[in-house]
Amino acid sequence: MKLFGNEVNKRYAIWIAIQAITILDIVLISIEMIFSLPSEIAVFITRFDFIVCIILLAQWFYILYLSRPKSIFLKSASNWIDLIASIPFDTLLPIIIPQAGILRYLRVLRFLRIFALFKRFSNSLQRFFEKTYLDKIIATIVLIIAVFTILLYLYGPSYGAFDDFYFVIVTLTTVGYGDVTPQTFSEKIIAIVLLFVGVFVFSTITAAISSFLTDRLLNKDEYIKGEIENLHKENEELKEEIHELKELIKEIK
């Protein structure tokens, strides 16, 4: 299997995909809890969450099946946290306990699931930020947004503070809806500089994430290749020992 033009381990690529859809699931659940969404969007999020839960449950039981001994796996608290994070409470609880009053407890269970999902990724996220310097990149983006919003507010009289902030966001992300546009010469100069900064910043983010994923996948492949080479060396040593034993047997005869 190839990723970014390099051969990578298929299992590890699947693991990366599972992490990605799980993070997306966390975001969608959080949005549903914070905002009042249309019913069709809420239904879509619930169905998507159910599918993600099925994938996570399958992964959990697959790891349990492979673990030796299983008692060590079952004694680990982190594995039980992963199991809690994989249970689709929103779908199962109303079916098991159909009383309407139980629905008020779903919010508590959602908080529990989000906590469990975050716990699942805490160590991985820490390593991710350390390798990609994404925390520093995010801090830089926040600083850029603040600086350019202040510049537009001071030197761009066409709009208010919120419109300046909105313009900086859509320009920095290279979206550019066009509903808020620079009018004066100073606003246009600031906008040009912001466009170049936006391209550079998001190219840096893309490069950092791509480099991290590629390095992790290639390192996994290097480890497997190393193990194969070690097995090959051991096999050659065994052949030499067998040859020596044959020579000794001939001499004895």
Brief synopsis:
The chain has 253 residues and is mainly alpha-helical.
Write up what this structure looks like.
This protein has 253 residues and is mainly α. The protein has two domains: 131 residues, Four Helix Bundle (Hemerythrin (Met), subunit A) (Up-down Bundle), CATH 1.20.120; 121 residues, Helix Hairpins (Orthogonal Bundle). Helix content is 81%, strand content 2%. It contains nine helices and two strands. A two-stranded antiparallel sheet has the order 1-2. It is flat, with a radius of gyration of 27 Å. The two termini are 54 Å apart. The model has no long low-confidence stretch (mean pLDDT 75).
Radius of gyration over all CA atoms, rounded = 27 Å
Sheet with most strands: strand arrangement: 1-2
Note the total helix count.
9
Within CATH, the superfamily of the largest domain carries the name Voltage-gated potassium channels. Chain C
Could you name the CATH topology of the largest domain?
A: Four Helix Bundle (Hemerythrin (Met), subunit A)
Give the number of DSSP strands: 2
Strand content: under 5%
What is the CA-CA span between the terminal residues? Answer: 54 Å
From the helix content, strand content and strand pairing, which structural class follows? mainly alpha
SSE string, helices as H and strands as E: EEHHHHHHHHH
Helix content: over 70%
The tally of domains stands at: 2
Q: Roughly what is the average pLDDT, rounded to an integer?
A: 75
User: Under the CATH scheme, which class of the largest domain?
Assistant: Mainly Alpha
Can you name the CATH architecture of the largest domain? Up-down Bundle
Q: What summary fits the major beta sheet?
A: 2 strands, antiparallel
Q: Shape from CA axes?
A: flat
- Report the uncertain regions: none
